[in-house]
Structure formats: structure tokens, C-alpha cells
HTH iclR-type domain-containing protein
Amino acid sequence: MQPDLDREYIVPILLKSVQVLDLLGEVPGGMRIEQIHQETGIAKTTVYRIVRTLVVSGRLCHANNGAYAIARKLNAEFDSSSCSSDSLYRNQVEIA
């Protein structure tokens, strides 16, 4: 990316959203809003808006324990069972 020429075409909230997705992609068990805020430095209200938008779009799921994690897709359809905290825990154990 050319710093001066392309800077005017950058969408800051999109960059922050990608940052959140990248972070959550590294943490199989998911993270709470406070943790995402601490790791990224993105304001909590912005983190909340980002993760809620990503949940609505099917990219993230929100577990019962308050964590947000990358949503698993089965047969190209969102599998809502992947949002259960038990499922998130199993995924973390399987990877570890």
C-alpha cells in the first residue's frame, strides 16, 4: 500500500473490524468485549458495534459465557450450535 496515495481510500472501521476478526481467529475459545478492547486498543463501544454486526452477519457467534468467537460454518450455512459455550470449549480442547 502506498502511504500517501491510498490513505484517503481507507475505511477505518473496516480496518478495525478486520483487526477484531484476526484476533478472534487466533483464539479458539473466543474473547469478551473487554478482552478484545484490551488487546486491540479499540474503544469498547466500537468493539461492541463491530462484534454485534459480525454476529448479525453470521461471521461471529456469541456464547453464553459472553465470549465472541469465529462462527463455524457447516455446509455453507451458519450452525447456531457452534455458539454454545460447550461447543466453544470443545473446539479449544480439540485444538490444544
User: Anything to note?
Assistant: The beta strands are 60-62, 68-70, 73-74, 77-78. Confidence is low (pLDDT under 50) at residues 74-79, 89-96. The domain at 11-95 is CATH 1.10.10.10 (Arc Repressor Mutant, subunit A). Helices lie at 3-6, 12-25, 33-40, 44-56, 85-95.
